[in-house]
Design goal:
mainly alpha, about 0% strand, about 280 residues, Ribonucleotide Reductase, subunit A
Length: about 280
């Protein structure tokens, strides 16, 4: 990496020194099964005529499972990221990078513990096999060379997509206070993680021909599409656990929901713009 990137990583590490355990930053008493966890405007079925016919308790339970879905996506990505990042830790790695990566892994581990505590606090049924990562995106995340362009581009996606959703939730009314706490903790840390991933991506690109982003764009488009779909659309079983029979049918309705499509496009736009600024062709 270049000196400018090392200076950034030193600053980010300094900002991470005053670590606060995420578990101590959330008002867990407010995260109960009698409350909406997400505002209805952020739900996958919102905007459909069929949604207006749902009983209030079904809508409320759906809001809880849709946030659990977001956390399951976070647990998957943080697990893969920490596994891949730990493989880069060696005596040959520059001390600045080594130190920063340890800070980031500590923060990602804290996020995962926070998500697990939230799922446990809900007291809701979450079968172990109900949520599955998308196969192609999972394969790419695990197999792309660590430290390479595709790895860091995927990391930008994994950090930036949930960040934009969290920032949206923090900016509107109707969000459960405990969920807002979770989003706030995540946003504060992810601002550092996104800055570091962008710097790593730009450094990796600077050493390669300018045609590389265009060549890798089909793979990155696939990764973005699959990740956005599992992040913004719960698995069929989550609809059923919310009280809706035939979960596959409800998920298809959500996938075709014009209001949901517009919501997702708006949230994804900043991430796509960021990556397109690096030369990728994603739309």
């Amino acid at each position: 990496m270049q000196n400018a990137d090392h200076a950034l990583l030193r600053q980010l590490s300094e900002n991470s020194r005053r670590y606060r355990d995420p578990l101590a930053a959330v008002d867990w008493a407010r995260l109960d099964a009698d409350a909406f966890w997400l505002p209805e405007s952020a739900l996958s079925l919102h905007g459909l005529a069929a949604y207006g016919d749902l009983a209030p308790d079904v809508r409320r339970r759906l809001s809880q499972y849709e946030f659990i879905n977001v956390m399951c996506a976070g647990l998957w990505l943080e697990r893969v990221f920490m596994q891949r990042l730990s493989q880069r830790l060696s005596a040959r790695l520059a001390r600045t990078e080594y130190q920063y990566f340890l800070h980031e892994m500590r923060e990602e581990a804290g996020h995962s513990l926070m998500f697990l505590r939230a799922i446990e606090a809900a007291g809701l049924e979450v079968p172990a096999d109900a949520w599955q990562p998308p196969r192609a995106a999972d394969w790419l995340a695990r197999r792309a060379p660590a430290g390479g362009v595709l790895f860091w581009a995927a990391t930008v996606v994994a950090e930036d997509v949930p960040d934009k959703f969290n920032r949206h939730l923090r900016a509107i009314d109707g969000v459960n206070p405990a969920v807002r706490d979770i989003c706030t903790v995540h946003c504060i840390d992810e601002a550092r993680h996104i800055a570091a991933a962008r710097a790593q991506l730009e450094a990796a690109l600077s050493a390669l021909p300018r045609a590389v982003p265009a060549l890798l764009s089909p793979l990155l488009r696939l990764l973005v599409r699959q990740y956005a779909q599992v992040f913004y659309l719960p698995p069929p079983q989550f609809y059923e656990l919310s009280g809706l029979a035939h979960g596959e049918r409800w998920r298809r309705m959500a996938l075709r929901n014009p209001a949901r499509q517009a919501f997702v496009r708006e949230r994804l736009a900043p991430t796509l713009h960021l990556l397109e600024g690096c030369g990728f062709r994603l739309r």
